[in-house]
Amino acid sequence: MIRRRNSIDDDDEFIGQIPGLPMRFSYEELRLATEEFKEKIGDGGFGTVFKGKLGDGTEIAVKRLDKLSQGMKEFLAEVRSIGSVHHFNLVKLIGFCAEKNCRLLVYELMKNGSLDNWIFSTDKRPSSHHQLNWQTRKKIVLDIVKGLAYLHEECHQKIIHLDIKPQNILLDENFNAKVSDFGLCKLMERDVSQIQTTMRGTPGYIAPEWRLPRITIKVDIYSFGIVLLEIVCGRKNFDGTRSNSSSHLLKLLQDKAMENKFLDLIENYDEEMMNHEEEVLRMIKIAAWCLQDDHTRRPTMSVVVKVLEGVMEVEEESISYCFSHALAHPVLAPPDKVSEPPQASLLHIYHSPSLRPQLTFGLGASSSSFT
Q1: The domain 10-109: what is its CATH number?
Q2: Is the full-model pTM beyond 0.90?
Q3: What is the DSSP string of 186-240?
Q4: CA-based diameter of the chain, in Å?
Q5: What is the Cα–Cα distance from 106 to 55, expressed in whole angstroms?
Q6: Contact 327, 297 (CB under 8 A)
Q7: CATH 3.30.200.20 domain locations along the chain
Q8: Eight-state DSSP code of residue 123
Q9: Angle, nearest 10°, between helix axes 301-308 and 277-290?
Q10: Binding site, annotated residues
Q11: What whole-number distance in Å separates Cα of residue 258 and Cα of residue 260?
Q12: Three-state SS for 135?
């Protein structure tokens, strides 16, 4: 339970009146936990992340928000809403610090960093890293799907993440995958199927329907499809060092599907992959299913969970391998950079009416926050 400190500070008094907030830390506690913010482990659009350790030995990632575009009320409203969303496959927000001009967020530390450090064979990895085996990749895929299914279908309000990419999938010491970075998310009432919002996300993972005035949770399904393709194939969705015919992974999928040579997509088709050829092909088809131009033909995440668990089969007759947008991704920002968020969000899952101001995004864990 959060105790209000003896202070005449208005912000302090306001914080003490809000129920349901996660653990509150003082700035001094986090300064000591991070050894004066000594070990920087990540940067994001909204702040810098440092490694730390609490007095009980719990390792943490402390995100210091550098862009204070929010007032205290708005900041606490977002902290409360994000802190109330709990699932094993979502990175946990442990607590926060709000003292005058200081805003810090405390997350669980994910020791194996972000997924992109493990799946792209051309990336330089620390010597302790290794190529993920097929069984681990399968588990990571299922973890991501379960996390997204929870956001889309099991929360009090539907949550659209809007920036699913390997940099925002974090791995713990046992390679359990957890979805992070809710800085761009939008919420929808459960009886609403689509919302109007400004375009946001990361180039290469943005669904084609963003050019329309309204979107659905299926934009996340599309982004997941790209991530799944990258996990299986071991290469990025766009690689400017390759020839024009093979630089776009989605265009290559379209071409190889016409030739029925799906396995040519895989960067390192080794013996282990050969031993699981049927599963590999199935994963590629699931990815294609999630990448349909027509968002109504994409499966929900709960359906993908059932397919991955063997309860349902891939609806191959529903899959079109004609991706008309394959070479037409909107270029909003340089690769691996998130587009600037709009000035207001709807992060108010459990807020009282008094905590429903217009909110700015800023609580998302950066793509490398916990590496």
Answers
A1: 3.30.200.20
A2: no
A3: EEE-TT---EE----S-TTS--GGGGSSEE-THHHHHHHHHHHHHHHHTS-SB-T
A4: 72
A5: 14
A6: no
A7: 10-109
A8: S
A9: 170
A10: 63
A11: 6
A12: helix
User: Is 163 part of the annotated catalytic residue set?
Assistant: yes
Distances (CA, A) of 128 to 30, 131, 268: 29, 10, 20
pLDDT score of 361 more than 50: no
CB 85 within 8 A of CB 144: no
The owner of tokens 């590629």 is 284
Mean of the per-residue pLDDT values for the chain? Answer: 80
Predicted pLDDT of residue 242: 87
- Binding-site annotation, residues for ATP: 63
CA-wise closest residue to 201 among 213, 217, 183, 218: 183
**Can you tell me which residue has the tokens 């929010």?**
70
Top-tier CATH class for 116-318 = mainly alpha
Q: In sequence order, what are the beta bridge partners of 345?
A: 359
Catalytic position from the list 116, 143, 163, 220? 163
pLDDT digits (tens, 9 = 90+) for 91-125: 988 999 988 788 898 999 999 988 999 998 554 44
**Residue 134 amino acid letter:** W
CA angle 36, 11, 67 (to 5 degrees): 55
User: Alpha-carbon distance 61 to 65, whole Å?
Assistant: 13
Cα(149)–Cα(146) distance, integer angstroms: 5
For the chain, the distance separating the N- and C-terminal CA atoms, rounded to the nearest angstrom, is 30
Query: Who contacts 317 (Cβ-Cβ below 8 Å, separation ≥6)?
Result: none
Sign of CA dihedral 326, 331, 336, 341: negative
Residue-wise pLDDT tens digits, 254-296: 999 999 999 999 988 889 999 999 999 999 999 999 999 999 9
Residue 46 CA to residue 68 CA, distance in Å, equals 9
The secondary structure element, H or E, covering residue 7 is: none
Left, alpha or beta for 336 (phi > 0: left; psi -120 to 50: alpha)?
left
pLDDT value, residue 124: 45
CATH 1.10.510.10: which residues of the chain?
Answer: 116-318
DSSP H or E stretch at residue 12: helix 10-16
